[in-house]
Amino acid sequence: MARDLDIRVAIIEDDETIREGYAYLIGNTPGYKVTGAYPSYEDAAKKIAHDDPDVLLLDVELPGISGIEALPKLKKLLPETYILILTVYEQEELIFRALGGGASGYLTKNTPHEKIISAIHEVMEGGGPMSAHIARMVISSFKRNEETPLTKRETEILEHISTGKSRKRIAQELFIDLETVKSHIKNIYHKLNVHSKADAIKTAKDNKFI
Amino acid sequence: MARDLDIRVAIIEDDETIREGYAYLIGNTPGYKVTGAYPSYEDAAKKIAHDDPDVLLLDVELPGISGIEALPKLKKLLPETYILILTVYEQEELIFRALGGGASGYLTKNTPHEKIISAIHEVMEGGGPMSAHIARMVISSFKRNEETPLTKRETEILEHISTGKSRKRIAQELFIDLETVKSHIKNIYHKLNVHSKADAIKTAKDNKFI
DNA sequence: TAAAGTTCCGACAGTTTGGGGGATATTGTA
DNA sequence: TACAATATCCCCCAAACTGTCGGAACTTTA
Q1: Domain boundaries, chain A
Q2: Are strands A32-38 and A7-12 parallel, antiparallel or unpaired?
Q3: Which CATH code fits B152-206?
Q4: Chain B: which residues have CB within 8 Å of chain A?
Q5: pLDDT tens digits for A66-119?
Q6: pTM exceeds cut of 0.70
Q7: Residue of B15, B24, B70, B16 lying closest to B48 (CA atoms)
């Protein structure tokens, strides 16, 4: 008994118990409707575009093509659908690959049922639902290291270098002499204990100096 | 009548009505305690370290030193304190500067009172509370552009270039010939319609190809 | 007032860069 | 299966860039 305004939700999750659990939960929540529930990307691929879901709950560990790998393919099949990752994994690399691949949210599987419903609602309203710990990791990824040995000017110049600009061009953009830029770079290399552009950039990024 | 286990909250907010409103809200919530409420960074600087707050609610638009500029200074005064930004502004640049400066959360001022309380609780529990729209912007900043004209290999090589590595080094790391790297770069430049490393990196980053 | 930071100077060998012209496999897919 | 796209490799060249050496003067800040 579908209503026109129901939020249409699809699920890709290999564990049958979990999948049916979610389907039951969502199907029995007023205003939400399950349009399809699949155990793998391969199974979903054929029919999911026809389901026309508003939101897709996607597991990352799937048999065959993993959820992460399936993400860009699903995005192409469903350009208008919000994809929420639902997983037990909290590894940084996985999270950032998922967000880079077009996920609009990232929930861990210990998320209480009512939170899953509210996350679906939230993503429809322009939000970006994340589990608390995930959100912390995402925020931390932006945090600069205040303990930098580099001065403001040195940091600024290293930032320019990391964009691939030549020293000459940096000098022009900062309205200083080429020699000054060279001098700063000399000091940067000493402080970071490196002997090349690439190593300086790597050290600085690893330590969040830039 | 402070209890030992109360969460200690400080506030820096120039608007008196809002400041007192928050102070009243938090002070009257069991388990929370206001240790100080200041209209500016300058006012707070003298006393806030002595307050020893667990969480600091910080406005970004302050008279004198702005909240954003005050962030690193406050971090030094209060290394253990979680800082939550509370502001009407939702500009990308401001958000990322705040998170880069060490903020642990970012709330807009239309946040309902109970959400402010739960955000304070959440940050104490290892979370990263954000308003829905902020979270969406943060997530979007990671999203890659699937419409890239570059092939996988070209993208990979451009990524290496953006770390400052020389072509020779890239060739070594990818176990291919220097000439192959040059060939890929030639194609990348053609596709992106640029004539230098710096321009290629800029175009690719602007368009989220890398 | 010291110390730290920013600015500028010159010379050198070696490396990198961007552009030109190709060729040959391997892939994916229509 | 055949075509287009991709990935690999080859040669040549001039110009520009890089990293290091060893300075010096001026300004800001603690």
Answers
A1: 7-140, 152-206
A2: parallel
A3: 1.10.10.10
A4: 72, 75-76, 96, 99-105, 122, 125-130, 132-133, 135-140, 142-144, 146, 161-166, 169, 196-198, 200-202
A5: 888 889 889 888 989 999 999 999 999 999 999 999 999 999 999 999 999 999
A6: yes
A7: B70
**pLDDT of B40 higher than 80:** yes
Measured from the Cβ of residue B63, the count of other Cβ atoms closer than 10 Å reads 11
Same fold? A7-140, A152-206: no
- B148: Cβ–Cβ under 8 A, 6 or more apart, which residues? B155, B207, B209
List the single residue in B with minimal CA-CA distance to A72. Answer: B146
- How far is it, in rounded angstroms, from Cα B89 to Cα B11? 18
* Nearest of B166, B191, B196 to residue B181 by alpha carbon: B166
Residues of A in contact with B125 (CB under 8 A): 132
Residues 6+ positions from B89 with CB-CB distance below 8 Å: B60, B61
Task: Say how many C-beta atoms besides its own lie within 10 A of residue A147's C-beta.
Answer: 8
At B134-193, the pLDDT tens digits run 999 999 999 999 999 999 999 999 999 999 999 999 999 999 999 999 999 999 999 999
Residue owning tokens 């912007």: B137
- Note whether A130 contacts B126, CB cutoff 8 Å: no
B200, B209 contact by CB (below 8 A):
no
What are the chain A neighbours of B202 within 8 Å (beta carbons)?
163-164
Q: Do A53 and A32 meet the contact criterion of CB atoms below 8 Å apart?
A: no
Chain A residue at shortest CA distance from B121: A132
Checking B194-199 for CB contacts under 8 A at 24+ apart, the result is: B196/A164, B197/A164, B197/B161, B198/A163, B198/A164, B198/A165, B198/A166, B198/A169
Predicted confidence (pLDDT) at residue A2 exceeds the cutoff of 50: no
CATH of region A7-140, choose from 1.10.10.10, 3.40.630.30, 3.40.50.2300, 3.40.1010.20: 3.40.50.2300
Beta bridge partners of B83: B56
Nearest residue of A to residue B164 by CA position? A198
Query: Residue A172 carries which side chain, given as an amino acid letter?
Result: Q
Beta bridge partners of A106: A85, A130
Check CB contact under 8 Å for A128 and B137: yes
Select the residue from B108, B125, B136 to test the A interface by mutation, using most A Cβ atoms within 10 A.
B136
